[in-house]
């Protein structure tokens, strides 16, 4: 059960509640939910709920009917984010774990690790202790395999994951790896579950071959009850009567899990299907269905693999899959970030270099705006998001060094460029260090007790009303009230506390203010994306450099712009955006903003840039990222 505590509770009352619960034999967990203090009590019911409800300082008691308690979303309404190496599983970014079934040799593991890292995997997997169906099959390299994994982490900066098959391996695992996997065959090995619970390292818990979702969550409960909250669930297919695939991938487990528990869920399409050509379709479906990540077997020479060769993707196939996932993720409000590791490591390096730990990024509006979401999706939990009330304020704060980064929108796929920010990029001496595209999905948000029939007034940004015109036309009686931004709209609706009010905003804003989403996706055009850039005073040392942005002007003579574009064309550099902006104070003269798919600051581009400089009157490099 969960005890919701009164706001004005005293320390003495809290202590008394805790000791009463312990006296009754309960395991006591401190919790909080959106500022509200809660106490979780796990154990056999000894008294009626009334008994606990009458304790001084208790506002109400919520019973948890499910067999699993600590794993229940009731106990922990927010999503759990599990940090493994530089990757956060369960956050805004999709985490892809890849590698061979088994570590076979140093050369094999390193070759595959380099490939999967190149294509965007953020964690490396490889078995050192393999639970094989036959005792005559390759059983893994044991400790030697673990030390190879540790070497990969050192050399490539990838966090490493491997399977633990016995509590006797715990000390070894502590020494070498970042996350331990409990395999499908061991999902109900309760001694092993208790052991990984005590180890405290993140645990990757696979679903048993014939386990129900409840049994799987009860296994997670074993780990959580030992005080280890870092559990990632992995669906890897279950046994059915169907012989065309190795197992049957239960994709419907994703929404079920998301509803029942706060723990992240990862899909393993490799063991689920057992066949290479079926892995990518299932991986794409998993991301579309809301999985927090994927675990995929990849081998550079699958025909020679000592285990699971037929289901291992070739590295190039893995690369193609990653490109597809990159496109699919924003559709479901997530991100596959090819610069994930480089960014996390660069931010960590920056913090270490400055001797303090907190990096800050400014965004427009308040918590829950789309700018906030862009900020959270770009940096994950590595950087603190700082609200600002105008774009100028963001540029000024970055310039003064009050914050390390700024996140500003540059263009929307429906409404075009945000000119103010283009002009700021010219005016301020700051660098673009990254970019992120976000799908803009609007939801009708109201009080949990409200419904569509009770609504009379709707608050949001005027542009949002435009974007939801078709939906709003069905409700001509609603009064539309403009707000500064979408998150402010939700906050105001919450503060007024009446069921006749609603806001149009993102899901994040609804979650932050604990409001209900009455209707999802009410924007007229679902292909509504906004592209944000991240600005900073300094380039991100060792950050990603796949694209570059620059601004220039040319002389007012025939073919001047063409001459500059020819330079890129001749070098085979792909131009992805060209935008012109009037030069202030010079009527009918223009600055060109150009985005290129190349690192124009690398030494090999020096000759190209020299020619460009000769052909332009003004040239400013905004950054390579
Ligand atoms: C594996 O991940 O290589 C493995 C053996 O998986 P499972 O336990 O799901 O069969
Ligand atoms: Mn395998």
Give a quick rundown of the structure:
By secondary structure, this protein is of the alpha/beta class. The chain is 33% helix and 25% strand.
Description:
β9, α5 and β10 (179-182) form a beta-alpha-beta unit. It is globular, with a radius of gyration of 27 Å. It contains 21 helices and 29 strands. The two termini are 49 Å apart. The strands form six sheets. An eight-stranded parallel barrel has the order 7-8-9-10-11-12-13-14, surrounded by six helices. Strands 15, 16, 17, 18, 19 and 25 form a six-stranded mixed beta sheet that branches. Strands 22-21-23-20-24 form a five-stranded mixed beta sheet. The chain is 33% helix and 25% strand. With 625 residues, it is an alpha/beta fold. The chain has five domains: 2-62, Phospho-2-dehydro-3-deoxyheptonate aldolase, domain 1 (Alpha-Beta Plaits); 82-332, TIM Barrel; 340-440 and 529-536, D-Maltodextrin-Binding Protein, domain 2; 443-519, 3-Layer(aba) Sandwich (D-Maltodextrin-Binding Protein, domain 2), CATH 3.40.190.10; 548-624, Alpha-Beta Plaits (2-Layer Sandwich), CATH 3.30.70.260. α3 (106-118) packs parallel to α11. The model has no long low-confidence stretch (mean pLDDT 94). Residues 101, 127, 131, 183-185, 206, 236, 271 line the site of phosphoenolpyruvate (PEP). Manganese (II) ion is lined by residues 101, 271, 297, 307-308.
């Amino acid at each position: 059960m969960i005890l919701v505590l009164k706001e004005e509770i005293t320390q003495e009352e809290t202590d008394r509640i805790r000791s009463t619960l312990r006296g009754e034999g309960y395991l006591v967990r401190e919790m909080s939910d959106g500022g509200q203090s809660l106490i979780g009590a796990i154990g056999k019911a000894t008294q009626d709920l009334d008994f606990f409800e009458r304790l001084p300082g208790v506002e109400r008691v919520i019973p948890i009917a499910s067999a699993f308690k600590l794993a229940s979303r009731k106990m922990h309404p927010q999503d759990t984010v599990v940090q493994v190496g530089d990757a956060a599983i369960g956050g805004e970014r999709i985490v892809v774990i890849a590698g061979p079934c088994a570590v076979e040799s140093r050369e094999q593991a390193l070759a595959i690790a380099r490939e999967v890292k190149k294509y965007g995997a953020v964690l490396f997997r490889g078995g050192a202790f393999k639970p094989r169906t036959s005792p005559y099959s390759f059983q893994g390299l044991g400790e030697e395999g673990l030390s190879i994994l540790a070497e990969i982490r050192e050399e490539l900066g990838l966090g490493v994951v491997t399977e633990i098959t016995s509590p006797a391996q715990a000390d070894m695992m502590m020494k070498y790896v970042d996350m331990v996997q409990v395999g499908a065959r061991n999902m109900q090995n309760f001694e092993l579950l208790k052991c990984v619970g005590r180890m405290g390292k993140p645990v990757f818990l696979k679903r048993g071959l014939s386990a129900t979702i409840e049994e799987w969550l009860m296994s997670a409960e074993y780990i959580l009850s030992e005080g280890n909250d870092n559990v990632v669930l992995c669906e890897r297919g279950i046994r059915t009567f169907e012989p065309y695939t190795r197992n049957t991938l239960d994709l419907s487990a994703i929404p079920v899990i998301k509803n029942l528990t706060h723990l992240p869920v990862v899909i393993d399409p490799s063991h689920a299907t057992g066949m290479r050509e079926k892995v990518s379709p299932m991986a794409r479906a998993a991301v579309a269905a809301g999985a927090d990540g994927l675990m995929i077997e990849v081998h550079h020479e699958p025909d020679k693999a000592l285990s699971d060769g037929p289901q291992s993707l070739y590295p190039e196939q893995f690369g193609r899959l990653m490109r597809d996932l990159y496109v699919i993720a924003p559709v479901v409000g997530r991100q596959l970030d090819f610069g994930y590791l480089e960014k996390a490591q660069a931010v960590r390096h920056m913090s270490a270099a400055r001797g303090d730990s907190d990096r800050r990024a400014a965004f427009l509006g308040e918590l829950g705006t789309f700018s906030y979401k862009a900020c959270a999706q770009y940096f994950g939990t590595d950087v603190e998001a700082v609200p600002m009330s105008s774009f100028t304020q963001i540029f000024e704060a970055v310039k003064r060094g009050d914050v390390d980064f700024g996140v500003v929108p540059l263009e929307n796929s429906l409404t075009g460029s945000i000119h103010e920010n283009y002009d700021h990029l010219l005016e301020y001496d700051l660098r673009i260090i990254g970019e992120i595209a976000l799908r803009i999905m609007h939801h009708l948000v109201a009080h949990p007790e409200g419904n569509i029939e009770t609504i009379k007034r709707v608050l949001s940004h005027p542009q949002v009303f435009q974007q939801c015109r078709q939906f709003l036309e069905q409700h001509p009686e609603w009064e539309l009230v403009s707000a500064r931004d979408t998150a402010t709209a939700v906050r105001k609706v919450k503060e007024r506390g009446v069921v006749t009010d609603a806001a149009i905003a993102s899901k994040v804003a609804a979650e932050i203010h604990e409001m209900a989403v009455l209707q999802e996706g009410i924007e007229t055009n679902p292909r509504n994306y906004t592209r944000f850039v991240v600005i900073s005073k300094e380039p991100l040392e060792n950050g990603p450099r796949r694209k570059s942005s620059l601004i220039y002007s040319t002389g007012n003579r025939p073919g001047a712009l063409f001459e500059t574009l020819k330079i890129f064309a001749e070098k085979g550099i792909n131009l992805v955006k060209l935008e012109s902006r009037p030069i202030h104070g010079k009527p009918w003269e223009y600055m060109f903003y150009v985005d290129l798919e190349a690192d124009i600051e690398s030494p090999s581009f020096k000759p190209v840039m020299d020619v460009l400089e000769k052909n332009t009157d003004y040239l400013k490099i905004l950054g390579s990222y």
